[in-house]
Design a protein that fits this description.
With 92 residues, this protein is an alpha+beta fold. Helices cover 21% and strands 53% of the residues. It is built from 2 helices and 6 strands, in the order ααββββββ. It has a 6-stranded antiparallel beta sheet, with no helix packed on it. It is elongated and about 40 Å long. The protein starts with a helix and ends with a strand.
């Protein structure tokens, strides 16, 4: 309950000061270029990695990416670059 109030307060502050919500609330940010390149920022780690499926943990749950010939090109503490043929993106 207290955590929910804190998130609401952060969200309101973000709107008042025109700050990005992904930074204030530690939300994941996903950027895609077509269906062959994806950047996931503000992640909490990689759960599963195969050429057909990648699961990434985040503050709002698991992000599941399915496709073909996918690779992790860049892994940093706060972002991941995924390449390959991306077919499905889901939040679970």
């Amino acid at each position: 309950m207290r955590r929910k109030k804190l998130e609401i307060m952060k969200s309101n502050l973000s709107e008042i000061f025109d700050l990005p919500k992904d930074i204030m609330l530690n939300l994941p940010r996903i950027s895609m270029i077509g269906n062959n390149q994806m950047m996931v920022e503000n992640h909490k780690g990689i759960i599963e990695y195969t050429p057909q499926r990648i699961r990434v943990n985040s503050s709002i749950g698991v992000i599941r990416i399915q496709g073909k010939d996918m690779q992790l090109k860049n892994i940093a503490s706060d972002d991941i670059m995924i390449t390959g043929e991306i077919k499905i993106l889901e939040y679970i």
